[in-house]
Amino acid sequence: MSSSTTTTTSLHEFTNTVPFPLTAVLVCLAPYFTLVKNALEILTWSRSTSYDSWLALAAWWAVCLLSSATLRYFFPIAIILTLTVITASASVRTSAPLFTEINLQTAIADLTVIQNLLPNPHTKSTPSHRPAFSTLLRVSAILYPPYLLLTYYVPLQILVAISGTVAITWNSPWASVLRNILHKSAWVRWSAYYVYSKLTGQPLPPRNLSYQTLAASNSVEPGTSLRFLFTIYENQRWWMGLDFSPALLPNERPSWCSVSLQPVSPPNAFALPEPTSVYLRDSNGRQVKRTATWKWEEPEWRVLVRKEDGAVSRVEKPVPVAKEENPSLLMKAAGKMKEVNSAQSSGNAEGDNQPFEKDEDETEEEDIVTDADGWVYGDNKWDARSSKGGMGKYTRYRRWTRVAVVNEVVEVVEDGETGIDDPSRGRTSVAMVNATSVSRRTEESPEVESPLRRRLKSALSKGTS
User: Fold this and answer.
1) 166, exposed or middle or buried, with CB in 10 Å at 0-12, 13-18, 19+?
2) DSSP state of 263
3) pTM for this model (two decimals)
4) Where along the chain is composition biased (Acidic residues) (predicted)?
5) Is the dihedral of CA 62, 63, 64, 70 positive or negative?
6) How far apart are CA 230 and CA 55, in angstroms?
7) Measured distance CA(333)–CA(277) in Å, rounded
8) Residue 233: which of 273, 264, 272 has the closest Cα?
9) What are the C-alpha distances in Å from 34 to residues 56, 67, 82, 217, 319?
10) Tens digits of per-residue pLDDT, 31-61?
11) pLDDT at 359
12) What is the 8-class DSSP label of residue 267?
């Protein structure tokens, strides 16, 4: 198979697997991802050559020292040149650009590099490592007079330039080597501890470090781990003679759906995504394998229950099992519902034939009080929601939730093709996305109708004819 055919197939699989809004955002922001990646590589000295980083350092000093004269004499000229370039570039564009698989791979690779270069926002700091407010106030009060004295003799622009130099060169190779050399000196370490203790008023750390402390400081950090909360809506409708049943009208939400009202598998058949291995290039040009494995963190599904006082809890309950209904009762209920619908359709043209639309205010749904079993009752249009059933309450739903965790392991492998490893095919493909997720399979294959729903449709069609 030729390379062109492989590229076309890979791009086709990517567009079929990934939702279009995500694809559009990924493609449109690809140039900005490249700019951010280049800027981070320059500031973190991650490129193979350090010329760009030295130029950035020189530009920083030029901005700090020449900013006053530049803004005074060249700021209007810079605005005119910028507007001219923007106008010229807008007039040159005649048609929309074409995007290929190379653009998608470049965008994902840039995002991966950005994630590796930026600090992890989910890193938790222990309370013992956070200085108290009184400590910060003490340090500020002690350092404020020397700061005023320093700014009196040294221009503020020079101080800002020096501070920026420390920040820019912090990740440089020579700065890292210098810090390691100084950190290995016991005299330097204890001098820093002594100054820190005098500023903060805290006692000096103990001189003798145990073997367990040294081993803990050299321990390897675990891989990336994220927690996800899966939510499945269980929907039921009240039928005369049948009470509440999962048999719903053909034009409304399915019996089991997601938050966006898309059909999903019930909790007892819901499966997590298969393990996926992605082969990418890291910032050093090495081939790495990133394997993501899903597993349930909780043993069972739980129903979301919200009390009147606002307390929210997740209660374990047995997952319902589909059961057959009495056909005679079903036919009677369908006939009664047909009479009610025909009477209401003459007075209200819209009625229940309009497809269900999700409320714009999603936070309102989160604040709705439920009953002890987690049910939220509504009218014939799934509106007027409350925690109590009764007259005028023909629909109800509740939310089943379960927490899953995905663990990612990164390992260096031999050079080869980049892409995603498809578990079903057992091989590595150049495609951006090969593994079809469970949710995608659910969307592609329509939900199998239960015998109860088929008999309901048949009864309604007979009543219409």
Assistant:
1) exposed
2) B
3) 0.49
4) 358-367
5) positive
6) 48
7) 52
8) 264
9) 17, 28, 21, 36, 48
10) 899 999 999 999 999 888 889 999 999 999 9
11) 42
12) G
321 in Cβ contact with 234 (< 8 Å): no
- Helices and strands: H and E segment counts in the chain: 15, 11
**Pair of tokens at residue 205:** 């750390």
Contacts 24+ apart (CB under 8 A), 302-306: 302/400, 302/401, 302/402, 303/373, 303/374, 303/398, 303/399, 303/400, 303/401, 304/231, 304/370, 304/374, 304/398, 304/399, 304/400, 304/401, 305/370, 305/372, 305/373, 305/374, 306/367, 306/368, 306/369, 306/370
The whole-angstrom separation of Cα 139 and Cα 150 is: 17
pLDDT tens across 285-304, in order? 778 888 888 999 999 999 99
Q: Is 420 in contact with 435 (CB distance < 8 Å)?
A: yes
How far apart, in whole angstroms, are the C-alpha atoms of residue 451 and residue 246?
Answer: 12
107-159 tens-digit pLDDT: 888 888 898 888 876 665 555 567 788 888 888 898 899 989 998 999 988 99
| Helix, strand or coil, per DSSP, at residue 131 | coil
